[in-house]
Inverse folding.
């Protein structure tokens, strides 16, 4: 039997990691991406390499995924991370009261957390609000989402994967109830083409529903936008979080020579065009100012908004929706050979890829095991060579 | 228009394209134009000097021609080229030794001002005689 | 790893020569211009004047030095412009050799001319 | 609600498809007056023409992918405000970067850039750098002064990414780059400079300086300083090129001095020199 061919739709973090995992398992892989690598949700993310601290009280499943993947990524992409840890700081009595639950959550999820003296926290972070009541240090980090994807794809390509950018899926090809390929259109030339596949993996993030609908199925996803504001200078060395349940503007991620304040949350109809509400930007500044008082004095460098691919749960608010991921085998909807991987976050992209690749291998009856925990990634620069 | 794999000679036009560029690009372009011009002049000059080998009459008839206002005007152009190339060359030499890199714009401005002053003085002298 | 400094770093040398001759020219060309076009009456010397001028040994040395400097500087400059075209290495080598020949011929011509004038 | 003033802004966009002659299209789109150029491009794609192709990822000057020319000058549209480049009447012109093959519309093939960065081999993480202020511009301008910073117990020092975001703007701005495909280019040379600063092994230093010293290394720069003027990240490639030259010249004279010595003691000229004066703020 010839090597099965899997088409991965989307070259964000999920698609890139999935292509990488499948290629390492020696499958024939083609990635279809309608724009540049990471031009959707992944590109415009907060760049936070989660320690899991952010979810250890409200969403332990996500928190454990995060800390596991955090440690794995340190091994496979050491040169692509800013590793300066993070601080969860209490600014109010309510924050302070949250500390015990936070430490308990960290312990339960095996997140190394250290309750450090406020004076020391202020020495580490000179611009931190001097009214800080408590600070807990966790192994947060910072990555570069674009290069994160390029590194996975460059490695996948080394193992034979093909990445087709500026190419969009226009339709699915069926044989009976099974997907046997996709129709694609090259946006640069306008040419259309049919690609055969033994299986199609939909990793289109908030656009997964749109792709799934072309195959006549649906995905319970709610594109939920968030605003981030980038400052024209770096005010913190470490990632700074409010020591409380996740809420708007409670995190400042430093990156390179900037600090990025995030984020808000609202449901959008069309993830293609999101207008940034000015009041969200104003809220980021006023919330960021609470953590780092000089925020308002610093010029703004950029502001951005993008839709997250949250999985819908009836009767649950967007902030409460689990940040974990889910695989949907559309055989359950009567369509074979088509899987959607939805939800999740860039920090856990490799784990998502592992899960979906396991399902792919099971469906194709291939006995290959996941190797992505240990294989160091190739240089992201090779993607363009 | 973008660079659509044009032949090199066409792309070399960009050496002289100062539209919406900064002062450094003007310096680059001026240096290149004057440099090429001075090489051409050098060989013309050497060619003309061969008249000296032909004897007194050929040279002296050339000299009387070269004392016309037209030739004196060309002399001013030549001098302008020399001053721009020479003084900007000092900027290139200094910055190339990592001296005054941050002040390169000011350096260029001052040197070109000096060039202008010297040129005006020389022009007055040339036409004044 | 091979040591790139085991051999003479040619690219650096070429640039240093360019600067050295350039700075030299600022002085020599200044003198040349002054002597031949400003001090000389009417802006140019007539034949007899040129012969007398060049028979002065200090002038002769300075003018010959000027010839060598100006030729070196000009041809290194032409070479730099040609290198900016990023031709293949074999073409670059041939161009460099051709420019060396041009330089030798130029200086030779200058010497011949000077000898013809002062003898 | 904070009221949002909307603008009708015309964009004149370079369009190119393989095999067809390039042309410009004019699109008028509606964006907020606080929008950046990338938002206007997004609006063109989302509401006017789905065949319009451009590169982008992060929208906050971190990925370096969206670089192009706005009214002829290299910029990152993600940090360039519409109001800063639009005079209120004439269309804002968008062209692809120069000195790269155009793939389609505003997309260029940047492989030549990444080949150079690979050759330089600079890792994008840096360490042993000063921590705050870590800004592109001096913090003093914002009225905030730096203080000495303690490093967490778990770390030996803070680290952060290099300033260079590999946007290739410098290669588009450089006049030498127009004709010389062999030139290592501003970013490549700045990366060599940074890699050389980080290198602790003499043979690595010798290798890096050897790269910089080729005919198509630092000596192809003719001091236009356009790279430094265009760089959105204050990398100052021209400054780095000059710092490399300084070190190369110093070595050249050392080599000459040794060659002139009556008894050459050693043939190894690759001992590392001290850091040059731009040591503090690298690429």
């Amino acid at each position: 039997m010839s090597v099965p061919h899997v088409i991965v739709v989307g070259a964000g973090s999920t698609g890139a990691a999935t292509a990488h995992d499948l290629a390492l398992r020696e499958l024939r892989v083609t990635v279809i991406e309608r724009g540049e690598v990471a031009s959707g949700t992944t590109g415009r993310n907060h760049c936070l390499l989660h320690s899991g601290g952010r979810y250890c009280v409200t969403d332990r499943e996500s928190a454990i995924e995060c800390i596991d993947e955090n440690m794995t990524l340190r091994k496979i992409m050491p040169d692509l991370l800013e590793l300066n840890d993070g601080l969860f700081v209490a600014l109010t009595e309510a924050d302070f009261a949250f500390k015990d639950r936070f430490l308990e959550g960290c312990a339960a999820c095996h997140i190394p957390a250290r309750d450090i003296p406020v004076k020391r926290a202020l020495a580490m972070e000179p611009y931190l609000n001097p009214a800080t009541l408590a600070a807990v240090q966790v192994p947060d980090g910072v990555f570069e989402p674009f290069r994160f994807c390029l590194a996975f794809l460059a490695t996948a390509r080394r193992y034979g994967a093909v990445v087709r950018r500026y190419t969009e899926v226009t339709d699915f090809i069926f044989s009976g109830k099974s997907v046997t390929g996709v129709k694609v259109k090259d946006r640069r030339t306008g040419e259309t083409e049919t690609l055969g596949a033994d299986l199609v993996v939909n990793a289109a993030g908030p656009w997964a529903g749109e792709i799934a609908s072309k195959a006549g199925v649906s995905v319970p996803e709610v594109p939920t936008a968030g605003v981030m504001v980038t400052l024209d200078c770096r005010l913190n060395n470490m990632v700074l979080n409010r020591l409380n349940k996740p809420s708007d503007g409670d995190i400042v991620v430093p990156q390179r020579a900037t600090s990025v304040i995030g984020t808000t949350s609202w449901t959008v109809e069309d993830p293609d065009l999101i207008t940034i509400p000015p009041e969200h930007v104003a809220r980021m500044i006023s919330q960021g100012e609470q953590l780092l008082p000089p925020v308002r004095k610093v010029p703004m460098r950029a502001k951005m908004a993008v839709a997250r691919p949250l999985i819908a749960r009836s009767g649950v608010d967007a902030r409460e929706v689990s940040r974990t991921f889910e695989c949907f085998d559309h055989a359950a909807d009567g369509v074979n050979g088509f899987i959607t991987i939805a939800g999740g976050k860039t920090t856990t992209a490799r784990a998502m890829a592992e899960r979906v690749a396991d399902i792919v291998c099971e469906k194709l009856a291939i006995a290959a095991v996941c190797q992505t925990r240990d294989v160091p990634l190739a240089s992201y620069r090779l993607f363009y060579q | 228009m973008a660079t659509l794999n044009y032949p090199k000679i066409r792309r070399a036009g960009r050496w002289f394209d100062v539209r919406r560029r900064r002062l450094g690009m003007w310096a680059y372009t001026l240096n290149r134009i004057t440099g090429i011009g001075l090489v051409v002049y050098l060989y013309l000059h050497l060619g003309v000097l061969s008249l000296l080998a032909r004897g007194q009459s050929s040279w002296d008839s050339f000299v009387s021609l070269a004392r016309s206002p037209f030739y004196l005007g060309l002399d001013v152009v030549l001098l302008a080229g020399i001053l721009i190339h020479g003084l900007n060359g000092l900027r290139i030499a200094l910055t190339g030794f990592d001296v005054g890199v941050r002040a390169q714009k000011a350096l260029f401005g001052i040197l070109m001002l000096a060039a202008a002053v010297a040129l005006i003085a020389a022009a007055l002298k040339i036409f004044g005689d | 790893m091979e040591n790139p400094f085991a051999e003479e770093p040619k690219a650096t040398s070429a640039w240093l020569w360019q600067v050295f001759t350039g700075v030299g020219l600022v002085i020599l060309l200044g003198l040349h211009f002054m002597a031949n076009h400003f001090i000389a009456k009417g802006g140019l010397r007539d034949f007899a004047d040129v012969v007398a001028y060049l028979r002065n040994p200090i002038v002769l040395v300075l003018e010959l030095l000027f010839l060598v400097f100006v030729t070196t500087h000009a041809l290194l400059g032409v070479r730099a412009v040609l290198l900016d075209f990023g031709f293949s290495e074999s073409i670059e080598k041939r161009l460099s050799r051709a420019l060396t020949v041009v330089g030798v011929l130029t200086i030779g011509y200058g010497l011949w001319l000077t000898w013809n004038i002062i003898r | 609600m904070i009221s949002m003033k909307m603008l009708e802004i015309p964009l004149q966009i370079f369009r190119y498809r393989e095999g067809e002659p390039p042309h410009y299209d004019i699109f008028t789109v509606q964006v907020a007056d606080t929008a950046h150029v990338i938002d206007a491009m997004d609006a063109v794609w989302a509401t006017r023409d789905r065949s319009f192709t451009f590169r982008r990822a992060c929208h906050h000057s971190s990925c370096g992918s969206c670089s192009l020319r706005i009214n002829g000058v290299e910029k990152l549209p993600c940090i360039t405000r519409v109001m800063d480049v639009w005079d209120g009447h004439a269309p804002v012109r968008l062209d692809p970067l120069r000195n790269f093959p155009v793939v389609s519309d505003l997309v260029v093939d940047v492989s030549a850039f990444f080949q150079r960065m690979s050759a330089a081999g600079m890792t994008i993480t840096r360490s042993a750098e000063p921590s705050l202020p870590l800004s592109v511009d001096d913090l003093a301008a914002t009225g905030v002064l730096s203080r000495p910073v303690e490093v967490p117990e778990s770390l030996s020092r803070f680290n952060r990414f290099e300033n260079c975001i590999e946007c290739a703007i410098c290669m588009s701005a450089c006049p030498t780059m127009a004709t010389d495909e062999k030139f290592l280019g501003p970013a490549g040379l700045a990366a060599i400079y940074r890699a050389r600063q980080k290198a602790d092994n003499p043979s690595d230093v010798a290798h890096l300086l050897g790269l910089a010293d080729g005919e198509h290394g630092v000596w192809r720069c003719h001091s236009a300083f356009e790279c430094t003027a265009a760089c959105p990240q204050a990398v100052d490639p021209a400054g780095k090129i000059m710092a490399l030259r300084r070190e190369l010249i110093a070595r050249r004279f050392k080599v000459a001095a040794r060659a002139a010595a009556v008894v050459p003691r050693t043939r190894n000229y690759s001992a590392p020199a001290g850091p040059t004066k731009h040591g503090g703020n690298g690429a």
